[in-house]
C-alpha cells in the first residue's frame, strides 16, 4: 500500500499529540494515505494573528514493490511571514525510473491534504517539489544537442585556422623575392628519386641535357636536377625580353644555348640560391683568373667543364641567352661598365678553347643554372 509519513514540528509553536486519523490525498497519480498529521496549536502568550501553519521535515515514502527509488526534496513554505527558518524541507521517495509505477520527473504534482483537526474542510496543498534523483541514463536529445554545438564550434575553429594558414601561404608567395621554390631530380631511367615515373614534361626537359652530356663527355649521366629559383627565373626572362625587343641587341633574339659550368661542390648551393657572381665586378673577388675576360665561364662540351669540377661528380647545366657575341679578347678583358646589358654592344665573348667552344657571359642575369650528376 502507498503511504506517507509526515511529522509536524515548529520552533516557536506548540505541537499537539499525533492522531492516527487517516485521510485520502487527492492525486491523479496514485492513492496515498496520510498517517500522523498532528494538530498545530498557537504558542502561549501569542496572539492568533501570529499563528502559522508549519510542518516538520519528514519523509514521504511511496512504496511500489520496486527496489529502485527516487529521492524527492520537498520545500514547505509557511503561509505567514516566518520569524525563524524560511522553510521546512521534506524528503519524499518515489518509484525510480525502472519501477513499474508512474515515471519520475523533475517536478511532482502537489497532492491536496484536508486537515479536519485545525482547518476543517480547508484544503492544504503540498508545495511544488524539486527532484534530486539518483544518477540515471542521460537524455539522448540533450546529449545530441550538446554534441552538435560542440562539433559546430570545432568546425568554425578549424575553418578559421585553415583560412589563416591559407592567407599566410598566399602572402609568402606574393612577397617572395628569391630562393628555390621548386626542385626535382630525374634519374637516367626516367624515374624520380622515390622510384615513381617522372612526368612527361620533366622527361622532355631532361632528354636534351642527357644526350648533350653523354655525347660531349663520354660519360653516362646518372641524374638531372631541375631547380626553379623564383628570382633567378624572373631576372633571366626579363633580361632576355629586353634584349630580344631591342634592335641589334642579340644575334638571334630567340636563341638560347645549353652550356656547362664546372666548379667545386662547395659552390653549388650558393649558385643555385643566388646565381653566379662575376669575379672582379663589384665587390666579388677573382678566383680563377681572367684569361678570357670578365664573366661567367661556360663550355659547350661537358668534358671541358668536368675538368673544373674539382673532383666532384656534378657540373652545372645552364640555360644561356648570349645576346650579341664578340670574338674580341681585348673587349672581353674590360670589365662591364654597368649592370645593364643594354649599355654595352656585346654581352658575351666566345672562343675555341680545348675540345670545344668556350663562352664568357659578361652578365650573370643571362645565365640560369641547373645541374647534372654522374
TrEMBL record:
Residues of the PARP catalytic domain: 220-324
Disordered, as annotated region: 1-29, 78-150
Pfam families linked to this entry: PARP (PF00644)
Compositionally skewed regions (Polar residues) per UniProt: 113-130
Low complexity biased stretches: 94-111
InterPro entries xrefs: Poly(ADP-ribose)pol_cat_dom (IPR012317)
Any GO molecular function: NAD+ poly-ADP-ribosyltransferase activity
Top-level taxon in the UniProt lineage: Eukaryota
Protein name, UniProt field: ADP-ribosylation
UniProt organism field: Lentinula aff. detonsa
Species lineage: Eukaryota, Fungi, Dikarya, Basidiomycota, Agaricomycotina
